[in-house]
Amino acid sequence: MIKLLPEHYHALLTQAYNDLFRNAQWGKEWKTARTICLNKSENPAPTTDQLRPISMLPTFSKIYERLFLTRFNSWTTRMNILPAQQSGARSHQATTSRVNCLLEQVTQSLRYNSFTPVVYIDFLQAFDKLWQQGLLLKLYRLNCPASYLVWIAHYFSDRTLKIDYGGVESALVNVERGAPQGSCLGPVMYVIARHDIPQCFEHPTQVHAYVDDIALVYIPSIHLKFSSKAVEIEERINNDMTELLNYADKWHQPLNPNKTEISSRRKAIASQYD
């Protein structure tokens, strides 16, 4: 619809956005999300954990985000902020990019080892639990330009949402934490907030991340016997999980123990009866 506007309207919009950027301002209405809840279950009266919330933001708000994101991504790329282990929320990479890296590392390990464990980590309500003050602190430590810091601080402040369930709308609810659902900037802010997570682990190069999904590959030492390898891997996993719990506690990002699991990949052994 915006593309159908007369050309002189485009100039007005450009001027309006430039003025907003200059003053790091946001329209109050642009910070209100309309959230609809879809029932994921067969239950006609679903519980809250059986609902899938989908948030919708005003179109002009999302355009404003994308304009800022172009500038912000230029800075993160120039300063090499995002770790190589993270394939989410960055151009020219997708889920398959990270999956291929993970499979390649596991395959390489199985050439020399009979087993290779992989730990899959899940954070509890990752986007909704994002600690905004912690994110701003990390951006400050990364020497983020002051104008960007002010803009992001305004972006997170005074956000509200209203829930629409079956056509019935709730009163406005203040949103004091988390990355705004349905936003363009939310995934990028989350990835920035977790840019340092590979350093929690003994072997950062064996960490694979796609936004909030993390997999840790544990490659045994090839010179050890099987029993010694198992003991070594168990000790490494326990140490890494302790460091991860400390990280999660420090940055107010709880883990989801019900979805954090370990899977061991084994080398196929040919049957002697073939």
TrEMBL record:
<dbReference type="InterPro" id="IPR000477">
    <property type="entry name" value="RT_dom"/>
</dbReference>
<protein>
    <recommendedName>
        <fullName>Reverse transcriptase domain-containing protein</fullName>
    </recommendedName>
</protein>
<dbReference type="Pfam" id="PF00078">
    <property type="entry name" value="RVT_1"/>
</dbReference>
<dbReference type="InterPro" id="IPR052560">
    <property type="entry name" value="RdDP_mobile_element"/>
</dbReference>
<feature type="domain" description="Reverse transcriptase">
    <location>
        <begin position="19"/>
        <end position="274"/>
    </location>
</feature>
